[in-house]
Amino acid sequence: MDKMKKLGITGKMASGKTTFAHSLIQWLTANGRTCLYLSVDEIRRRLIGENDDLKQLLRQRFQTVDPARLSRLVFSAPEQTAHYNSLINPYILKYVREAVATASAADFLLLEWARLVEDGYLPLVDYNLAVTCCPDKELIRRLNGGDLSETEINGRLQNQTDWLYNRKTLENICFSAGGKLFFVNTEQPLTKSETEKYFEQPTGI
User: Fold this and answer.
1) What is the mean pLDDT of each run of 10 residues along the chain (205 residues)?
2) What is the pLDDT of residue 11?
3) Which of 50, 85, 89, 148 is the most exposed place for a label (fewest CB within 10 A)?
4) What is the DSSP track for 165-201?
5) Using CB atoms within 10 A of its CB, is residue 52 exposed (0-12), middle (13-18) or buried (19+)?
6) Could you please report the per-residue DSSP string of 86-117?
């Protein structure tokens, strides 16, 4: 393969993105394909823990770099989320680009970034897998995590963009970025034919 194919995995909180990504990784490995998997949640935690410049910026704006406190401050109010992303996303973008350059021989990149579309970074990937499930399932999954109350979870879900469920709008956004789009319902089992479809598409960017 001459070029790494890059897949974005997006969707709301607790929609099943990580479980879905791991299923794809297992399929790729079983079929002799190499894969670089990047989780923006994991990257974000690493950067907040290790990058002194970023920590200084966050302390100036939010008076904390504690992950739990930051999470409660920034993810329940759209204006706080936007300011937080404006500070941290340039660091995430640099990390992703460096990781991709280092692993350029891999066949595929799986980039799990919940807000990839909202943050305007679709050009990073060749096509996007928009992961969905019903809101009740999202709530149950997140409650099972045990770190947030039902009120906090509902606040975050309401803060997330509704057009992730609007197929036509998301299709138009992906098309305008030159990429392809698949919708994935994580309440349904992942079939062999569906999995093959994700990995046999030509690169679009």
Assistant:
1) 80 80 90 94 94 96 90 81 93 96 93 87 86 54 54 58 55 58 68 69 39
2) 81
3) 50
4) G-HHHHHHHHHHTT-EEEEEETTS---HHHHHHHHSS
5) exposed
6) HHHHHHHHHHHHHHHHHTTTSSEEEEE-TTTT
Largest CA distance in the chain: 50
**pLDDT of the residue at 154:** 59
Q: Which residue has the tokens 């305008």?
A: 176
Kind and range of the H or E run holding 158: helix 150-159
**C-alpha span between 157 and 91 (Å, rounded):** 25
Q: Of 121, 106, 94, which Cα lies nearest the Cα of 179? A: 121
Q: Please tell me the distance from the alpha carbon of residue 117 to that of residue 177, in angstroms, as a whole number.
A: 10
Distances (CA, A) of 48 to 71, 112, 152, 182: 12, 18, 22, 32
Q: Angle between the 67-74 and 78-102 helix axes, to the nearest 10 degrees?
A: 120
Is residue 131 within 8 Å of 11, Cβ to Cβ?
yes
One-letter-per-residue 3-state SS of 113-154: CCCCCCCCCHHHCCEEEEEECCHHHHHHHHHHHCCCCHHHHH
